[in-house]
Amino acid sequence: MIKASRVFYISAVIAILFIIWGVIPDSTLPNANLDNVTSIIQGFFVDKFGWFYLLSTTGLLVFAIYLIFSKYGKIKLGKPNDKPEFSYITWFAMLFSAGMGIGLVFWGAAEPLSHLNEPPFGSANTPEAAKTALQHSFFHWGLHPWAVYATLGLALAYFNFRKQSPGLISSILEPLFGNKIKGAWGTIIDTVVVFATVFGVATSLGFGAIQISGGLSYVFGINKTFSLQLTIIVVVTVLFMTSAMTGLNRGIKYLSNTNIVLAIALMLSLLFLGPTTFIMDFFTSTFGSYIQELPSMSLRMSPFSEEGRSWLNDWTIFYWAWWIAWSPFVGTFIARVSRGRTIREFVLGVLMVPTIFGAIWFAVFGGTAINLEMFTGANLTEVANDLGTESVLFALFEEIPYGIVLSLIGILLISTFFVTSADSATFVLGMQTTGGSLFPPNRIKFAWGILQSGAAAVLLWQGGLEALQTASIIVALPFSVILILVIISLFKAFQQEGKEINLSKRS
What we know:
By secondary structure, the chain is an all-alpha fold.
């Protein structure tokens, strides 16, 4: 019988204490409530270590690209005769659904629109600002975040399936620290992983409920109340818990495939019902600029402009910290579904497919939003200011033929992405708190599912979701150091394997 590890009990206690802290009224803890304290810490980290986030994330991308062309690319993530457990389509769908599917729906139109009105440099609401807006959306959701996920996912899959180590992030560091990592330091690392996953996913649950309620309110005129959002959380919890209990080969697999079908259908519908020629021209020219200017964007700071520095902190540095904080969850899940693939196949798949799909997605949704804003007189910015960012997508659909149908598909897609993100996280938390078991028991998954949903509901009620998001992102700084150690440990393991292969050939 698989038992919960001590990481489970430590993490659960910490999570409950943070939730209690989050609901304590400001008057009880003046200047010491969760929102205030986490905002101060995160602001300090972003301001003082923004350069470190940029260098770390860019370094991970360079490492991932190196692996594609290196001699290690032929190494299989598993035994020599292992075959991939899932087809390419299902594999892509699962890693994409877990990675950032719901975020693309939320920000697909809203982020480029925001950059159009407040660009990182230059004048707002100009053709140059429009190009910069889409280019930076590609940048924030493209190669860099997926390189973070690919690096950690690769290390976990390599050690778990090829070296038969437990599916824990602490076990990756054993080549560096030996058996010492099995003690207190290993427990601390795995607890940090669980902390980031619980609060990152709880935040997404809360914001997902906000967007679904925003869509229902915009389309059907239903009042956007906490009762509606709580009802959405309860329904989604029942769905993702049911899916999580059925395992990878049923619930998560089928829902992920459904996600990708709905996403492609929605994207193609908007492409052909919207300004098709403008979208494709915009995509072609802007994607070329993204590739061309990738090195300079990757290392761009703004030491001489306070306004430029503030924009970078609010967007690029925030995103890099958020992707690093999410990498334990997404990396663990990607690793779990990637047995039997070679390192080259794994890195190419994880880097290229989501990046290209995400770029097309932003071109369609962001391009349509910019076209409406600049050429038709539609004021989506006013909708964002008055009704919230979550309403921009539905305001965009209102300007397109068959908008009500697209809105309904959009609400359904948000809901299915919502469910797959949560059930994937529940599965990962089960793995991380049962010593890396590939088949965590349902009772452990059930406990984490209830805790995630409870945290989302309570903090949504108290207005503490942003504080929880900030708390999760704070983990990114120490975890970025762990990621650097992961690369060193992986290299050491590769070199050792190379020596063993050479010895076996000689003998």
